[in-house]
Specification:
single chain; 345 residues; alpha/beta; Rossmann fold; seven-stranded mixed β-sheet; six-stranded parallel β-sheet; 13 helices; 27% helix; globular; NAD(P)-bd_dom_sf; ADH-like_N
Length: 345
């Protein structure tokens, strides 16, 4: 089969690799029907995630059809249409028993496209398939469902829920890429008074307004003044970092009010300065996190019921064999206007 293979920093290829096989009794093999590219994949290609070794098949977000299951897999059968979660869960370790699947100690966590071969391929092996896949309702299209593999639960769990968004809050989302837009959409579930989007690209600020932001700002020195202007001079109740750069993290700490929350979602490849000399006295809470995907069933139910729309995030579509061109488009959002790109069989 063919797959998107990481060849080291800056190197990727769509090339022949061995077909996946059942390796453990808890595995399943799926035919990949729809797959997308994550900002984390770009971090890998920049060399920001050294645990990913050359030769690894990338990708951790897919919808597929079950081809084969291991002897220990229950509740799945060949022909089932499933969402493959970005997080794998053994189900028995301490963290899995607490629902913190991202911290799995039994061989799971974020492994697809990281420490084991991923899903940007014609077929993929899904470890711990019983807990790491979700059967899909017929009414949820593939290109909508694939957004539930990572960005929707990530923005909701690591951004909105960790940030403790509450009714009447002013929420600032720094970075209006796919994760930031998903944070804007899921923050609305809690009826904030204002959602402010900050980004340097006008195309993404336009998208942020379409997704529900009522204020959009450039990341300049006037941004803090604008946030204070709508909060009685205090600053934002919750600031969600959705980029992963030192300067965007530090901007978040300048926008938050005393007693507020900074929820870091972005993947950082370089150190950021933590100005505790300013923050310690302001009672600011800073959270980080890897998604657990424990919210996926609830989010999927809302999507299936028409209560949470995310399909409008997909602006570019490609055949799976055109994945190299899809990467080119996704890597240059300022020129292409890309949000999420989806490749289908």
């Amino acid at each position: 089969m063919k797959a998107l293979v990481y060849g080291g920093p800056g190197k990727r290829s769509w090339t022949e690799v061995p077909d996946p096989k059942i390796m453990e009794a808890t595995d399943a093999v799926i035919r990949v029907d729809a797959v997308t590219i994550c900002g984390t994949d770009l971090h890998i290609l920049r060399g920001d995630v050294p645990a990913v070794e050359p030769g690894r098949v990338l990708g951790h977000e897919a919808v597929g059809t079950v081809v084969e299951t291991g002897d220990a897999v229950r509740g799945l059968a060949a022909g089932d249409r499933v969402l493959a979660s970005c997080i794998s869960a053994c189900g028995t370790c301490r963290f899995c028993r607490e629902g913190s699947y991202g911290q799995c100690l039994g061989g799971g966590g974020w492994i697809l496209g990281h420490t084991t071969d991923g899903v940007q391929a014609e077929y993929a092996r899904i470890p711990f398939a019983g807990l790491s896949t979700h059967k899909l309702p017929a009414g949820v299209p593939d290109e909508t469902a694939v957004l539930l593999a990572d960005i929707l639960p990530t923005s909701y769990e690591v951004g909105v829920r960790n940030g403790r968004v509450s009714p009447g809050d002013t929420v600032v989302v720094v970075g209006a890429g796919p994760i930031g837009l998903a944070a804007i959409r899921t923050a609305q579930l809690f009826s904030p008074a204002h959602i402010v989007a900050v980004d340097k690209a006008e195309s993404r600020l336009t998208a942020a307004r379409e997704f529900g932001a009522d204020i959009t700002l450039l990341p300049d020195r006037l941004a803090a003044d604008a946030v204070r202007a709508v909060t009685g001079g205090l600053g934002a109740d919750v600031v969600i970092e959705a980029v992963g750069l030192p300067e965007t993290f530090e901007l978040c700490t300048r926008l938050v009010r005393p007693g507020g929350h900074v929820a870091n979602v972005g993947v950082h490849g370089a150190p950021a300065t933590l100005h505790l000399e300013d923050l310690w006295i302001r009672n600011v809470t800073i959270t980080t996190g890897l998604v657990d995907t424990s919210s996926t069933p609830r989010l999927l139910a809302m999507v299936a019921a028409g209560k949470l729309g995310v399909g409008d995030m997909v602006r570019h579509r490609f055949a799976l064999a055109d994945i190299m061109r899809a990467y080119d488009v996704f890597e240059t959002p300022e020129q292409s206007g890309a949000l999420k790109v989806v490749m289908t069989r």
